[in-house]
Each structure stands twice: as C-alpha cells, then as structure tokens.
C-alpha cells in the first residue's frame, strides 16, 4: 500500500484527539507574560500562534460541517482573557465536527493549495499534524518538554512526508517553512520538525 492510500484509509480522529491533548498540555503551561514572546513560527508571537490554532480549529470544524469555503471561518479565532479555555473550546468544537463527518466526505480547505475538496480522512490528518508540531512550537517558546510519544510521531511523520516541498508551497504566506536539513541518525522528533520547516535547536 502506498503512503497516500494508507493515509486515505486511516481514521485519524482518535490520533487527532491525542494530539489535541498534547497541544493543550503545552498551552496549560503558558503564563500571561509569555504571550508576547517570539515563537519558532516567525510570523507569530505566542499569542498569535495560539490565536491561529483556535482559528484553524474553527475553520476545520466549519469544513466538516460543509461550510469551509468562507475564509472568515478560518480567521476569527479569539483568545479572550483565557487562552487555555479558548484552545480547549475550539478543540472540542472540531472534535465534535470530525466525529459527525464521514471519512470520504469532501472538505473544502481554502488555505491548502487549491482549496480542495479533500477527503475528510486526509483533511483530519492535516489538522492532526498541525497540532503535533504546534505543540512543539508552544513548548519550545516557554521552555517546556514536548513528548509526543511513538504513536503520534510515527503517524505525524507519514503525514509530513506528503506535504509539498516546492517553492510555491513553502515559505511566507504558506503553512510551513522550507524543509530544514536533517543529519543522518536524527531522532524521529527532530526529523518531524525539520520536515515541517523547524530547527530543533531553535530557542528564543
């Protein structure tokens, strides 16, 4: 079975919820005075990164309900005065929406290449890998541990392997920075980060 076929026939919903728990464990450690810090995502402070993930959760939830084409669904995230509560609420929202979606349904994702529709199984894998790597972004920003475990790493590496690497697909205004060279013998954690444009040695 080729990799794309494997992803299209995998139910990522349980993994997505585990990735949400990983992400929330990092967000739970964020103190108010850390929100202005830079993150491994050069376009965002920590506040901006957390707001971005809330927006993505709301956008994916809208897509699962058949209304993903409107960009306003993807840009309306609000942290209010409690970033953790906002993150938990948006993740509950998208988890519920994914649970009610058939894996072969078409989800429109306007910020991904031509917008789709993408099979729900694949779209959910995109949300999953974002959560895993954004958990690292948050953890690295605040100096907290990031321990996704073998199950999440193995699945995330498979999804990361299909992310396009062309000049039009990576860089400013796209989901990921260009691939970072990874030395032979790099750990699975480091290979995942470099595939998705992160430097494992990043520090603020």
UniProtKB/TrEMBL annotation:
UniProt cross-references to InterPro entries, sorted A to Z: CHP03086, DinB/YfiT-like, Maleyloyr_isom, MDMPI_metal-binding
Residues covered by the Mycothiol-dependent maleylpyruvate isomerase metal-binding domain: 19-139
Residue numbers spanned by region Disordered: 170-191
An MF annotation (GO) of this entry: metal ion binding
A Pfam match: MDMPI_N
The protein's name in its UniProt record: Mycothiol-dependent maleylpyruvate isomerase metal-binding domain-containing protein
Organism: Actinomadura verrucosospora
High-level lineage: Bacteria, Bacillati, Actinomycetota, Actinomycetes, Streptosporangiales
């Amino acid at each position: 079975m080729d990799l794309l076929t494997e992803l299209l026939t995998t139910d990522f919903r349980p993994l997505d919820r585990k990735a949400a728990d990983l992400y929330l464990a990092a967000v739970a450690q964020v103190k108010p005075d850390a929100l202005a810090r830079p993150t491994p995502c050069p376009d965002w402070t920590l506040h901006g990164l957390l707001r971005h993930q809330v927006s993505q959760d709301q956008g994916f939830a809208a897509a699962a309900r058949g209304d993903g084409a409107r960009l306003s669904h993807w840009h309306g995230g609000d942290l209010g005065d409690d970033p953790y509560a906002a993150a938990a609420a948006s993740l509950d929202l998208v988890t519920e929406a994914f649970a009610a979606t058939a894996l072969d349904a078409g989800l429109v994702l306007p910020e991904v290449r031509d917008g789709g529709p993408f099979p729900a199984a694949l779209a959910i894998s995109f949300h999953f890998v974002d959560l895993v790597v954004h958990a690292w972004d948050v953890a690295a920003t605040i100096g907290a541990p990031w321990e996704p475990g073998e199950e999440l790493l193995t699945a995330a590496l498979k999804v990361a392997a299909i992310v396009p690497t062309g000049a039009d697909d990576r860089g400013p205004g796209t989901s990921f920075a260009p691939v970072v060279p990874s030395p032979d013998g790099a750990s699975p954690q480091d290979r995942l980060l470099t595939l998705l444009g992160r430097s494992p040695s990043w520090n603020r």
